[in-house]
Amino acid sequence: MKPTIQLRLGQHLTMTPQLQQAIKLLQLSTLELKQEIQEALESNLMLETEEEGARRDDAEGERSKPDEELNGNRLTSDNGPNDPNNESEIKIESQSMPDDLPVDTVWDDIYDSMAPAGGGAVGGDDGHDFLSQQSIEESLRDHLVWQMRLTPFSDTDFDIAEAIIDGISEDGYLTTPLEDIIASMDDPDVEIEEVEAVLHRIQAFDPPGIAARDLRECLLIQLRQLPEDLEWRREALELVDRHFDLLAQQDEAQMRRRLKLESDELMTVIHLIRSLNPRPGTSVASQAPSYIEPDVFVYKHNQQWRVELNPDAAPRLRVNTEYAGMIRRADNSADNVTMKNHLQEARWFIKSLQSRNDTLLRVASRIVDFQRNFFEYGEEAMKPLVLRDIAEALEMHESTISRVTTQKYMHTPRGTYEFKFFFSSHVSTASGGEASATAIRALIKKLVGAEKPNKPLSDNKIAAILADQGINVARRTVAKYRESMAIPPSNERKRLA
């Protein structure tokens, strides 16, 4: 068999380290990006922020001046060069700290005169600054345990109280059955009556209504803690205790008949009950508030919507010129090779950051252009938008757009939104057009907000109203959108005027 030569043509994508790094930075949130940049600054000696580089350049410029100029500009002497004590007074009237100190300078020698008058540190003799204290958010459990330790309990009752508190949810309800609490106790002699007695004592804790087993008991606890001479308190207690099912059903006729009240008097009693907190646990902070730092800002200038990157989202980086100047081209020593590697990594990192910012700005600008009506008129004017639309407009892959829009936020005059908020599926209209699912949800929310309390709109009625506006949606679609906004059905929204 005669040997032959065959040529095959193919292509494949190689994920270089630089490309991998660019993809990684692209999908990071602002907080994660700051952490990544901080780690890069700590591990790579060639990287520095532009602020640090500017301060270092200024310091080098100052050190390059003649000593006579430095003595003339920085130091002054009231007694002139013939001062017998040979002392120079440092000007610190502005109380600003220099960027660089000599290595042999003692901090106290320079800033001793800046101590507050009267001696001692700010905030007390112990040197503790009261303003520097950070508030610690108290959880509901911590709040209840603190009250438990102030209550005179026996050892057994203390263990029971601790078990009850462990079974209280974030809403403030006791979700663990009393039988399970008894089973969790090491003491076999604990009876159900003893657990109920401890539970009643905990139900007297703050916030009012805590440790209730259902909504009815929660409302009763709060009503019983109101002043006895409060008007309509007795009627509210009777309504919740004996006729709670009628209250849930909004049966006005039966409630008036049972309580022997007029219509206006019944409404006063119901208003008193509505003033109570059905979720008492939420009145106690359970976690520290979380904040969102936007990646871009959107504003209107000269009738045009503009997009700008948040300058505080990530520090601007540059290569340290001092260390870069130490690299010798022909030197293959270990230190020189390490510095060359750091320099290459620093350039890649800076380039990847620039690529991330450019891509982020392009995607955000395209979203704003596409959803211009939203910024002008609100959610009801939102257009249907999918990832493919942005990808085709920018000639990018959908996976890239997905990375850009994940955990990225846009600050607008209407609020701060995640990029993904502006993407939604479409629903066909009667005229053959398309409507955004976000716009439909906004319309449903508007209709529910304007409905009569005693005659709420059903899903069928909402679908009919939307059809009159040219938006053909099924009742099931209306129900799905309503449930996604946590809006209860019409029978649960019905209440007395």
Question: What's the total helix number?
Answer: 23
How many β strands by DSSP? 10
Query: What sort of overall outline do the alpha carbons produce when their principal axes are compared?
Result: extended
Strand order of the largest sheet: 5-4-7-8
Helix-residue proportion = 40-55%
Biggest sheet descriptor: 4 strands, mixed
Straight-line distance between termini = 98 Å
Q: What would you call the structural class?
A: alpha+beta
Can you put this structure into words, describing what you see?
There is one protein chain. With 497 residues, the protein is α+β, with helices and mostly antiparallel strands. Among the domains are: 296-422, no CATH class; 426-493, Homeodomain-like (Arc Repressor Mutant, subunit A), CATH 1.10.10.60. 48% of the residues lie in helices and 7% in strands. It contains 23 helices and ten strands. The strands form four sheets. A four-stranded mixed sheet has the order 5-4-7-8. The longest helix has 37 residues, at 334-370. It is extended, with a radius of gyration of 35 Å.
What is the structure about, briefly put?
48% of the residues lie in helices and 7% in strands. By secondary structure, it is an alpha+beta fold.
Please supply descriptive tags for the structure shown above:
single chain, 497 residues, alpha+beta, Arc Repressor Mutant, subunit A, 4-stranded mixed sheet, two-stranded antiparallel sheet, 23 helices, 7% strand, extended
Describe how the helices and strands are arranged.
Layout: H1 17-26, H2 30-43, E1 47-49, H3 50-63, H4 67-74, E2 75-76, E3 89-90, H5 107-111, H6 140-149, H7 155-166, H8 178-184, H9 192-202, H10 215-224, H11 233-242, H12 244-249, H13 252-259, H14 263-274, E4 296-301, E5 304-309, E6 317-319, H15 321-324, H16 334-370, H17 372-377, H18 387-394, H19 398-405, E7 409-412, E8 415-418, E9 426-428, E10 434-436, H20 437-450, H21 459-468, H22 475-484, H23 490-493
Parallel strand pairs: 4-7
Antiparallel strand pairs: 1-6, 2-3, 4-5, 7-8, 9-10
Helix pairs in contact: 1-16, 6-7, 7-9, 10-11, 11-14, 18-19, 21-22
